[in-house]
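Support request, please re-run this one:
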Amino acid sequence: QVQLVDSGGKSVQAGDSLTLSCVVSGRAFGRYYIAWYRQVDGKERDFVAGISDSGASTYFSDSVKGRFTVSRDTMANAAYLQMNMLKPEDSALYFCGFSYGGNWAAPDYWGQGTRVTVSS
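Re-run finished. Output below.
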């Protein structure tokens, strides 16, 4: 079993920056992809950003491209979502997802979520 702990969410002002962290533990053997998702109450969980198993490739939704970056620290079994120029519409519950095969649509494991609130 693999456990993910995502953290770093808080209330900020529009234009601020914030970094979310996702720490992987448990039986996470081999190479895996990490992605970030967000969910607004009552809506579906949407893909935000992802990073490949090697860290060489990153992927972003159009809504965050140019503002968010994603990185990983393989030695620390952690991944990070750096969010810049935050907007009120970025407010959501953010989750990290773990995937052995890079299937962004269906991660194998989820974090518990960390809430980001952006005020105008």
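The mean pLDDT is 95. The CA atoms of residues 21 and 80 lie 5 Å apart.
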